[in-house]
Amino acid sequence: MDAGTRARDWAEIQERMLAPLYEAVYQRLEVGADTRMLAIGCGSGLALLIAAARGAHVTGVDTDRERLALARERLLPGSGWDGGPGRPPAERPMLFAGGPAEAAPAASAAPYNLLTAFNPIGCVAGDSEGLAPALESAVRLSARGTTVVLTGWGPPERCATAPVLRVAARLAESARAPRSAGLRAACRDDLEDVAARAGLKPDGSGRVSCPFGYADMDSAVRGLLSTGLFDSAVRATDRSQVEKEVAEALHPHRRPDGTVWMPNVFRYLVCVS
């Protein structure tokens, strides 16, 4: 599968599964017209779109150029989103390839007052590497006392998807793939550890139900593989083998009507810079 197809599978199938998490965070923080948000790892832009619909001025950065291209389709002129009544052109969304340093506000612009890292950590070994330095870089572009939000997977016993994700670890380990990233159970203090390394002060947390629901088995397999969590398994074996074993692992979650449904819980941590 090429990178463009996988990015579109993420945008069209998988990304919406995290919408309840975005909504819960924005509701708690009262995101609105006074919010200047920088999203680290903005992906294909759904979280930005939801914040912009609440009146926020949004900026996103991501290293995945294919997902970022889809975010531009959604958010920039020509995408059908006009910014809402009374929103000046200067307040249009801004999207940058790379890290937070690429998104430094113009000298005349107000600094960011909300930083988000909505890519959940705590599932793959090493999935938080690089996040603390990225947060430190983003904090330098923000106002004093800026709110920072980190997100992670909930405990495995609350995530029906956890056994399916373990397929990736088993396939990678059985083939002894070099540099394979093993999946692991989320730890209670994953988010707090990242916050501490980034010099952030925790200021509350929450859990949000984010069920993964798919129209059919094909959509479920495509959506899960679009996350990147199965990349090591694909490299160790081949895509068809991974697809077959993921489908088998999903079988207990298939309903009589052919849909696939897996309840999950995700956690977020609110910090202050």
TrEMBL record:
* Entries under InterPro entries matching the protein: Methyltransf_11, SAM-dependent_MTases_sf
What is the designated name of this protein? Answer: Methyltransferase type 11 domain-containing protein
Q: Which Pfam families match?
A: Methyltransf_11 (PF08241)
Give any GO molecular function from the UniProt entry.
S-adenosylmethionine-dependent methyltransferase activity
Q: Which residues form the signal peptide?
A: none
Q: Which domain of life is it from?
A: Bacteria
Per UniProt, residues of the Methyltransferase type domain are 38-75
